[in-house]
Specification:
There is one protein chain. The chain contains eight helices and no strands. The termini are far apart. The chain has two domains: 114 residues, no CATH class; 99 residues, no CATH class. The longest helix is centred in the first third of the chain and has 28 residues. The protein is mostly helical.
Length: 214
Amino acid sequence: MAPRTTTHDVDARAIAVLVTGYLVGLVAYPYLPGPFLQNALSARLMVAFTLPTTALVIYAVFTNLWKHDRVRSGNGAFASTYRAIVLRALLFVVALHAIVMIELTDLMDAAGIRTVAGRMVIVILGLTFIAIGNLLPRTRPNVAVGVRTERTLTNARLWRQVHRVGGYATVGLGVVIFIIGLVMTKKSAGALVLGAAGVAAMVVLASYRKHARA
């Protein structure tokens, strides 16, 4: 039987992801084109480290929200799930950062490897939705993630029902986005992603209204 993942394990992975983001920026820094602005140094610093810093801010904000959340259970229930969702968000931001660095430095082109940044971003976005969707049914009332209304926050049963459907809808949305990223053109991808997101949102809303009346 595989050992259970603890909150400390997830936190360690999140920190490793953040460090990786900064390392990618540091490695890419000498190869970045410029100047983007009048001050070439500050421009390169912004390009190399803005997204890793964004990921760091996300991590700090959600960690702080968890510590001061008066809605969630005081026994730490679903703490590892909460941190796992945050980790998936960090992975997406750092992966996006890596793609941007690859595109700006042209290192892959120099090595004869052709990359399609737009398609890669859509595929990774789809995988992120799939990963988060699988975790949503395991969440419990809290102020940071999920469908947070007055009724779901005060009714654990309603929360579970809505987020079970929300999890399926999010996974389905992720699969659609993943396929779009693989096979669709850039022009049609945006409209299709928005359409799929709209359908997923309506499914979750319909579930909320149905179970709220029960």
